[in-house]
Amino acid sequence: MIKKIKKNPSTEVYALGQHICMSPHKARRVIDQIRGRSYEETMMILELMPYRACYPILKLVYSAAANASHNMGFNEKNLVISKAEVNQSTTVKKLKPRARGRSYPIKRPTCSITIVLQNIAFYEEEFQRYQYNILDLNKPVEWITKEKYTDMTCYDMYNKGGLWDKK
């Protein structure tokens, strides 16, 4: 059962899947890989991952993107997964017959998954407007071409100020 709800009409759209028959822990393993990625990259990741949780999450991401393009008119290239969460839902309880007329309880956990897509086209336009106002394109920009240092020297406050290298 998939619900489609609009959260913030300006930039966000989300899809909610409830009572999906899998453990929330197994679904979180996949959700942690796609959080913060673009829509196209997420679809490639979910199609290639070997877990059973990928298929319902793929359907939810596809549903949220369809909501964004149909209801809001967003372009799928500008969508980013801003929020993805898995919550525990109800537990299906069954009884299995065992030896000597006894019964053994079986608990099947279910989960609810929420995928929130955000349109970043507005933010890119604002960034470009801001960037051209600040930067002078005739001068070389030093802070963009400058390489970052990978070695860091840190002071450890617990070992009497000893030095250690962090890479």
pLDDT below 50 for ≥5 consecutive residues: which ranges? 163-167
Count of extended strands: 6
From the 3D coordinates, which CATH architecture of the domain at 2-94 and 105-122 would you assign?
Answer: Alpha-Beta Complex
Termini, distance in Å?
47 Å
The rounded Rg comes to 24 Å
Helix content: 25-40%
Strand order of the largest sheet: 1-2-4-3
Q: Beta-strand level of the residues, as a percent range?
A: 25-35%
Number of helical segments with 4 or more residues: 5
* Overall form: elongated
- What profile does the largest beta sheet have? 4 strands, antiparallel
Q: How would you describe this protein?
A:
With 167 residues, the protein is α+β, with helices and mostly antiparallel strands. The C terminus is likely disordered. α2 packs antiparallel against α3. The protein has a domain of 111 residues: Ribosomal Protein L22, Chain A (Alpha-Beta Complex), CATH 3.90.470. The protein starts with a strand and ends with a strand. The chain is elongated. It has five helices and six strands, in the order ββαααββααββ. β1 and β2 form a beta hairpin. The strands form two sheets. It has a four-stranded antiparallel beta sheet with strand order 1-2-4-3. A two-stranded antiparallel ribbon has the order 5-6.
